[in-house]
Design goal:
CATH superfamily: Aconitase, domain 4
Number of helices: 7
Strand content: 15-25%
CATH architecture: Alpha-Beta Barrel
Length: about 170
């Protein structure tokens, strides 16, 4: 995971639940290439056909509320989303997204800074999200080192695989 993340922005309102990210009717789908065809088909129908790897999702409050299923962040990962930034997250969605390796940033006030199509610049270590078009920015507390390690490894499963392969497995936090 890099310190600087930049990408085109897709915007979402408040209270987008996991069913709006990926509908419950796809819970039996395990193929990431199939899942990504249906990302945001309720909340943002044009997303799956038009998003590019590295694009950034910017949302209002309570992103990922609803069920605790991992399909929602897995589908975003399959799309190649560069980061998810929101005013706030449902806690389980936040951790599931980190666990699959998606940079997930909680920055109150961020949604008001962006329109769809803007470019976001995220400075992970400095704790800053800015709109490159307007220059507006908000700060966020940088993620703790153990979460940055998970992101650097590509997610929890990849981190554990790497540690097991090298004999460096330690406690998972």
């Amino acid at each position: 995971m890099q310190d600087l993340i930049e990408g085109r922005v897709w915007t979402l309102p408040d209270d987008v639940d996991t069913d709006q990210i990926i509908s419950g009717k796809y819970l039996t789908v395990i193929d990431p290439n199939e899942l990504k065809k249906h990302v945001f088909e309720i909340a943002l129908p044009e997303f799956a056909a038009n998003a590019h790897p590295g694009d950034i999702v910017v949302a209002g409050v309570n992103l990922g509320c609803g069920s605790s299923r991992e399909h929602a962040p897995q589908a975003l990962k399959a799309m190649g989303v560069g980061a998810v930034v929101a005013d706030s997250f449902a806690r389980i969605f936040f951790r599931n997204a980190i666990n699959v390796g998606i940079p997930t940033i909680e920055a109150p006030g961020v949604r008001a800074l962006f329109e769809a199509g803007d470019t976001a610049r995220i400075e992970m270590k400095a704790g800053r999200v800015s709109n490159t078009r307007t220059g507006a920015a908000v700060s966020f507390p940088p993620l703790p080192s153990h979460l940055l390690e998970l992101l650097e490894a590509g997610g929890l499963v990849e981190k554990v695989k790497r540690e097991l392969a090298t004999g460096t497995a330690g406690p998972v936090r």
